[in-house]
Write a structure and sequence with these properties.
The structure is a homodimer of 312-residue chains. Chain A is of the alpha/beta class. Helix content of chain A is 52%, strand content 13%. Chain A has a seven-stranded parallel beta sheet, with helices on both faces.
């Protein structure tokens, strides 16, 4: 039986193997992803983003448990959990995996970005497709809310959750502008700390300034994820948003938005790689760099030249 | 006198105006950037990255003061300082600007990323070029060390500084893998806190595992930026790295690396925009999205089709 068949039947090792191929950028993964794609589109995708230290992982774990209680299977994609300074996050990740290791209804995958310049979004999308095809009912994507790729990953989810924390000063909350706009649900986690109500109110106020484009009124919830407080309510809110999307054709629309973005990212990567190869293979790339370095031309004019020669 | 001439003479308002054009993606900025480019390549570029709350801004301010004491002019590009939750970072930024507002030798620019999907790196590079052409001796780029664009921005600097802090738990230190590799100098800021020596030692140990590719042995320094402690030593280390690069032809090599990356980013943006326009203008983009959404094809095969039709 081939890899795809095994994955479709929910084989964990086959699933993990394809994911490793994707992460390594192995070309053999492409034909499998092509065949696999028609089996996707069934899973409900939830994005969880927030600054480091906001407790995203604990929240994700809590939501997973609630979904498991309802008999649903769950895939978790943790984007970039590695810590070059302490190794702590990797350790935490291993502990998480162990906790769920006896539960075949949960599949956790960590995505690092090392060595994949520009490829994180593409690899994450592919891994989500694999989990979808493998039959997971819900897929949770967890990511630090800084960086355009990460924001797009969460934006492309059916339900986007933005996590904040009270009383950690200004700089720590410096989440990218634009994150406010992508949230369907906002969570003030560690809400047993001082200032939780103030933070929740500030978010509410900011939300009032924006307009609900799709008719959904974003909600603000408070949780203490380590104690499990508020997690059931958060999960309930996710399910209500899911029901809302179902009623309003929003799910189909979000699905198409996601496809547009996946298509755009893939096109961008493939195009650039191919044109750079072309320019590099006939030695003109080095020549361009030398001419720019000597200020005989500039990067903008050089790109004009390359595009003109390629007939674009 | 035209905008370019004013900028070359160090006119602040003209400089700010071109930067706003760049941030807004105004096409009129391109011809100016083309003409301006031959006046670049003189400034020394320093990248400062680290997690939120590590005190990057205070460190950057401290380095700026030290450089001003040495009679050097400074440009600061703060990438993404906005805080949608509290507005705090914006406020802090205004206070900073006020502090330096009487000093015409310092120019500060904040870059937000809102609405510029994929364009942050390009816009930041262009702003660095403007400051370079405007005659700033040193350009400091300050950015949260998460997200590939941000890492590349710092990597492309002549001297890359990675900021860490002691005793803030694991998750908070979850800087991207790959950040360790880009640092020429490592700073443990807030070094009056418990665990500073431990963090410094951990970084030292990690550094010993890696190899110095260009002959420079990365250094680890401790600072308390808010009290100004260690900032003079850090600035001295920057100047020593600058002298090292000068002696070893490293500066020319780093310059070329930066040009390669700028060229690649520009090519990527322009290519994708142009091909998407082409595909969209004849209505095939919508058709592709619909076909993918219906699972009649998949994103990978659709991109193959587009590239084939474009003769690439």
């Amino acid at each position: 039986m081939d890899l795809l068949q095994k994955i479709l039947q929910g084989d964990l090792r086959a699933t993990a193997r394809l994911m490793t191929m994707i992460e390594n950028g192995a070309p053999e993964s492409i034909p499998i992803l092509k065949s696999l794609y028609r089996h996707t589109g069934k899973a409900y995708v939830i994005g969880v983003t927030g600054p480091p230290g906001s407790g995203k992982s604990t929240l994700t774990d809590g939501i997973t448990e609630e979904l498991r209680l309802r008999g649903k299977t769950v895939g978790i994609v943790a984007v970039d959990p590695t810590s070059p300074f302490t190794g702590g996050a990797i350790l935490a990740d291993r502990i998480r995996m162990q906790r769920h290791s006896l539960d075949s209804g949960v599949f956790i995958r960590s995505m690092a970005t090392r060595g994949h310049l520009g490829g994180l979004a593409g690899a994450t999308n592919a891994v989500v497709d694999v989990l979808d095809a493998a039959g997971k009912d819900y897929i949770l994507i967890e990511t630090v809310g800084v960086g355009q790729d990460e924001i797009e990953v969460v934006r492309s989810a059916h339900t986007s959750i933005v996590v904040a924390i009270p009383g950690m000063g200004d700089d720590i909350q410096a989440i990218k502008a634009g994150v406010m706009e992508i949230g369907d649900l906002f969570v003030v986690n560690k809400a047993d700390r001082d200032g939780a109500d103030k933070t929740a109110m500030e978010i509410e106020m900011t939300l009032h300034l924006g307009k609900a484009t799709d008719g959904w009124r974003p909600r603000v919830l408070k949780t203490v994820a380590v104690k499990g407080e508020g997690v059931a309510q958060l999960t309930q809110a996710i399910l209500e948003h899911q029901a809302f999307l179902h009623q309003t054709d929003g799910r189909r629309q979000k699905g198409k938005d996601r496809i547009y973005w996946v298509f755009y990212e893939l096109l961008r990567e493939r195009l650039t790689t191919r044109l750079i190869e072309k320019v590099a293979s006939n030695g003109t790339l080095d020549a361009f760099i030398e001419r720019i370095a000597a200020r005989e031309t500039d990067p903008y004019s050089a790109v004009d030249e390359v595009l003109m020669k390629a007939g674009l």
